[in-house]
Amino acid sequence: MHPHLRHLITLQNLSAETLLHLLDRAEALRVASAHGTRKLDLLHGRTVLNLFFESSTRTRTSFELAARRLSADVVNFDIANSSTNKGETLLDTLHTLEAMHLDALIVRHRESGTPEFMVRHAASGVSVINAGDGHHAHPTQGLLDALTVRQHRRNLDALTVTICGDVLHSRVARSDVHAFQILGVRELRLCGPQALLPNAEEFPGCMLGDDFDAAVAGSDVIIMLRLQKERMIATLLPTKTRTSRATG
């Protein structure tokens, strides 16, 4: 029996059993939707709030559609016109929102650690899901990538997976690495310009390098990352062209 999972902040410490359970549930819901089941009552009577301090139309819409298809009531919090722009602290905002009797918070924030802060201070009945925090983690994207790979290649322990691009600033890369390591892929490679590669100590068990051709040779899966300009020091890279050349 998989352990109860109240919050989803990172994939890093999940067991293989829990991760596989999440992927199996996601696949079952995908199949049900493909066969015409557009709505289930799993979250009927529950209220989910999208709390996006970083704008992302696709991610927020994906969470909203998922919650609505599970029959939850969904509230999209308008950060631009909220009291957080008038000096209200994050903790004040959290307590104000909890007074609305929420069941789940979907949190996206530019600062790493914000969802974990919410977990520490939220009421015991409120679940927190990380929709991306700084360069720390994006667990639902990691789950999506793992599910996509598993749909096409069932024997994950025989795969070589290569992640290319701005690995240094990418929360998706970190969650992908956690997911694939838990699932036991044979080899994980990280490739990008030297300025966009993290320290090897941060990614134990991964091969790091800046030779794109060598990295993709023999790969079963290649994941391409965009430049995370919003999390970069302005002078880190001279030009986009140099990055494009380095990553093919």
TrEMBL record:
Residues 6-151 form the Aspartate/ornithine carbamoyltransferase carbamoyl-P binding domain. Gene3D superfamilies: Aspartate/ornithine carbamoyltransferase (3.40.50.1370). Keywords: Transferase. SUPFAM superfamilies: Aspartate/ornithine carbamoyltransferase. GO terms for biological process: amino acid metabolic process. GO terms for molecular function: amino acid binding; carboxyl- or carbamoyltransferase activity. The keyword Transferase applies. It holds the Pfam family OTCace_N. One of its GO terms (cellular component) is cytosol. This is Aspartate carbamoyltransferase catalytic subunit. It comes from mine drainage metagenome.
